[in-house]
Amino acid sequence: xxxxxxxxxxxxxxxxxxxxxxxxxxxxxxxxxxxxxxxxxxxxxxxxxxxxxxxxxxxxxxxxxxxxxxxxxxxxxxxxxxxxxxxxxxxxxxxxxxxxxxxxxxxxxxxxxxxxxxxxxxxxxxxxxxxxxxxxxxxxxxxxxxxxxxxxxxxxxxxxxxxxxxxxxxxxxxxxxxxxxxxxxxxxxxxxxxxxxxxxxxxxxxxxxxxxxxxxxxxxxxxxxxxxxxxxxxxxxxxxxxxxxxxxxxxxxxxxxxxxxxxxxxxxxxxxxxxxxxxxxxxxxxxxxxxxxxxxxxxxxxxxxxxxxxxxxxxxxxxxxxxxxxxxxxxxxxxxxxxxxxxxxxxxxxxxxxxxxxxxxxxxxxxxxxxxxxxxxxxxxxxxxxxxxxxxxxxxxxxxxxxxxxxxxxxxxxxxxxxxxxxxxxxxxxxxxxxxxxxxxxxxxxxxxxxxxxxxxxxxxxx
Amino acid sequence: xxxxxxxxxxxxxxxxxxxxxxxxxxxxxxxxxxxxxxxxxxxxxxxxxxxxxxxxxxxxxxxxxxxxxxxxxxxxxxxxxxxxxxxxxxxxxxxxxxxxxxxxxxxxxxxxxxxxxxxxxxxxxxxxxxxxxxxxxxxxxxxxxxxxxxxxxxxxxxxxxxxxxxxxxxxxxxxxxxxxxxxxxxxxxxxxxxxx
Lengths: 463, 196
What we know:
Order of helices and strands of chain B: HHHHHHH
Shape of chain A: elongated
Number of helices of chain B: 7
Strand order of the largest sheet of chain A: 1-3-2
Mean pLDDT of chain A: 77
Largest sheet of chain A: 3 strands, mixed
Keywords (chain B): Membrane, Transmembrane, Transmembrane helix
CATH topology of chain B: de novo design (two linked rop proteins)
Structural class of chain A: mainly alpha
Pfam family, one (chain B): LemA
Largest interface: A-B, 17 and 20 residues
Order of helices and strands of chain A: HHHHHEEEHHHHHHHHHH
Mean pLDDT of chain B: 81
Low-confidence stretches of chain A: 276-286
Structural class of chain B: mainly alpha
Number of strands of chain A: 3
Helix content of chain B: over 70%
Oligomer: heterodimer
Shape of chain B: elongated
Strand content of chain A: under 5%
CATH superfamily of chain B: LemA-like domain
Membrane topology (chain B): Single-pass membrane protein
Protein name (chain B): LemA family protein
Subcellular location (chain B): Membrane
Low-confidence stretches of chain B: 191-196
């Protein structure tokens, strides 16, 4: 038999695979960074009338006691040439005005991001002291074996061995925690019965690779960005309903006061902002708008616009974008796993076995991206955070794994479904583009009504 | 005046370049030292597990006294060689002796486990199963620690040999490190001859 050398695309050295995926690791940071920057700029410009108005009124009140600068008159002087004839204003002046106007709003958005990321950091997903489950039973050989394989892979990756927790769940495992120094691996009970020691080593290698490659920190950053979008969408949706509007105060209070219960409430609210997540009986909130609700009315303009836009952008663009970029992290974890074990068959046979098992593990919308294989409860997503099993197996075959038979039909959607989804996305994007000017007009009118007019009246009275 | 600013900016960039190069090489070198320490930890763990293993097996493998004694002797030799190498890490002969002793211990353990297959009562013994798993994982950890060390050395050597670090690495005090050689002797690495 004549042995033929491998053709160009048939084989890939795992060092090259890891380096290739590492080069594309910037995608998630770019997607999140750009989305957050755009949202922050839009929000800060919309909040500028309110923030400057409040600051101006405070100075006006203080002017009754001692002389203070007239901030509102100064702002009006800067704004009037731009309002009268924007085209006559030099670009540099326009840009510096936008920067000045958005500065307080940007600071506020940074605080909002910090508060949301604090809530997420305190969730069971990232705060490993809250992990429910039991440690491996030293008398159970399989549990001891899995814990040992995790320690072996931690030695290979030169990171501390993660804590191991076993929970009642499907055949899946996930890495949780903030970073490699305080990581926990959560294992579903059913997984241990399905795989042998070599396959355990493959799964353990994938988990340790995800920890060593900093997937948890990136996951937290991603969850924070999605959380800020979800918060704004939640607030804007709540404006439509009196009960929800009053209940939003509960959300704002929970964000500011970080107790375990309040952070859990925040996460439940933010996991899907379009669903009215369970609140303490809504009837306990007064149906009438009290003075607190009227005080929040000036927020209606900015929040109305940015909330809806944020919701659309998050669902149609940001989430699919993040899911697409996160798939690279999964390929990278697989490639790093092969680098650690030098044995791709362990992981490939494990993926093949798990492809027709029940893989439901952690509940909660934020948890699925940390699992080894796609948990079955992740449905309704335009793009999955997990590449199709066939693609993962093909990548492992290129790195030297044996071909694995797939018992279930291909999980990759047929072409016509993908074209249909793509077409729907284009239609939705068109609708958003048409809706945008209407939202801008509505937001401007609400801002005029609830923010600029009351401030102008009060300013005239005080000065 | 603008010429002065440009010169200062260029100087600042050059300094930043050297700082980042030095920091990167330091991080890679520390990784190599961490990996070397890890090998030591796993080898010591293996030495500690073996007496328990022999005691558990002794009552079952009554006719394998020679093999059991060989395991204990190989373990003691490896432990002594390891202590000597730790006291004199700069002595290449001590390191070579340690590597040889560890290789001999690995092959003796391999013969022990092959023999233990013929004793089903011993294999079924709960204590033996756990000890066997602990030894398997320790052997694996020794292997992975050596692999991690070689990977860290490869990364450091690649960084030192790449341009522009290759011009400055010597002056900054960094030199290439040798990879670890396999534990087995030349004779053991030869494929066995099979005759029918």
